[in-house]
Design brief:
Shape: globular
Number of helices: 15
Number of domains: 1
CATH architecture: Alpha-Beta Barrel
Order of helices and strands: HHHHEHEEHEHHHEHEHEHEHHEH
Low-confidence stretches: none
Helix content: 40-55%
CATH class: Alpha Beta
Mean pLDDT: 97
Structural class: alpha/beta
Largest sheet: 7 strands, parallel
Strand order of the largest sheet: 1-4-5-6-7-8-9
CATH topology: TIM Barrel
Number of strands: 9
């Protein structure tokens, strides 16, 4: 059983010899960039540099699957009109301006969506990764989801207010119609170019921003539509403490969910497995991996394994300044755990 076979078997809910270890969000770590010679901002737009950094996660950080489609979650929003802030080696692309905060009059879906933004570079990155890695390891695509893209276009606070006002719900639907189409096209673009699964990041749908009731009303049907249209398995990542919406996340039709350390991993695994859903998680990124000691990273990795993680991963995107030695503790802990 090679690494890809182990990964895909586990994603399908089958028994494997040991828990796969890696990352299903972003891993643009500065030390990793310097070691492989593919540094941001070049690694954000140049397909060769993108591929080199992706493979460095596998060759140098101990990850057992690799990422395509860059190092941020803004590509859909960029094509739909958001202005992005310029990246630096320790700063990813970010949303700078919301183009439809004042009016939706010009909102439309571009027919040439996949020819815009960074999608042509992503296409070439997929080709390079498949050429260099073949079927050795799984490859995944990632972007923001339809809900987060909608928040980016309008502004999160304003968009969430719209959901609570009857006279604005037509506008909510108008924005989501565009972003849902974009999300589906992005996902199937990845599968058409060789992705083995796709991670949808929906940080703007976390419980810190919206209630489970609102999530059920708006995000659940949206996610069901997107997942049903996808050509392959989907992993849903939501930031912060997702305890209250774990059951809803598992009802979307996804193959797996990805959760942060603020969530109760053991309980999430129990809920998810009852619904035949796998769980990625959940070593803390902002604290343990970024500021903690290697020993703390190792022990937290062991705890994630003991709590039943199906895939041992950071809880969210790894902070650029995180020491590579800390990141390497995930694989070390996994290897030691399965030697017991």
């Amino acid at each position: 059983m090679n690494l890809k076979e182990r990964f895909m078997n586990r994603l399908a809910g089958k028994e494997v010899d040991m828990t796969p270890v890696g990352s299903t969000t972003t891993y643009g770590v500065v030390e990793l960039m310097k070691k492989c010679g593919a540094e941001r901002p070049k690694a954000d737009t140049d397909p060769v540099a993108m591929a080199e950094l992706a493979i460095a996660g596998y060759k140098m950080a101990g990850f057992e699957w690799v990422k395509a489609m860059g190092w941020d979650i803004t590509p859909i929003s960029e094509v739909l009109g958001c202005t992005l802030g310029e990246p630096k080696i320790d700063l990813q692309y970010y949303i700078k301006e919301h183009p439809y905060a004042e009016s939706l009059d010009d909102l439309d879906y571009p027919d040439d969506f996949l020819q815009k933004g960074r999608f042509p570079a992503y296409k070439e990155q997929f080709r390079i990764l498949k050429e260099k890695l073949g079927d050795e390891v799984a490859i995944y695509g990632e972007s923001e989801g339809a809900w987060t893209a909608a928040c980016n276009l309008v502004g999160t606070e304003q968009f969430l207010k719209w959901t609570m006002k009857k006279d604005q719900q037509e506008n909510v639907g108008k924005v989501l119609e565009v972003t849902t189409k974009a999300a589906i096209e992005s996902i199937n673009f990845a599968f058409d170019n060789g992705a083995d699964y796709y991670c949808i990041a929906e940080p703007s749908s976390g419980p810190a921003l919206m209630s489970p009731r609102t999530w059920k009303q708006w995000v659940l049907p949206l996610m069901k539509e997107v997942v049903a249209a996808a050509k392959g398995p989907i992993v849903l990542h939501v930031c912060a403490n997702t305890d209250m919406i774990i059951p809803l996340m598992c009802e979307t039709g996804v193959a797996a969910i990805s959760i942060e350390e603020k969530a109760d991993l053991k309980k999430a695994v129990e809920i998810a497995h009852e619904k035949d859903v796998r769980v990625f998680g959940n070593v803390a990124t902002a604290t343990t991996l970024f500021m903690g000691t290697p020993e703390a990273c190792y022990q937290e990795s062991i705890a994630s394994l003991e709590n039943g993680a199906d895939f041992l991963t950071p809880g969210c995107g790894i902070a650029p300044g995180s020491p590579l030695e800390n990141v390497l503790q995930l694989k070390k802990a996994r290897d030691d755990y399965f030697k017991r």
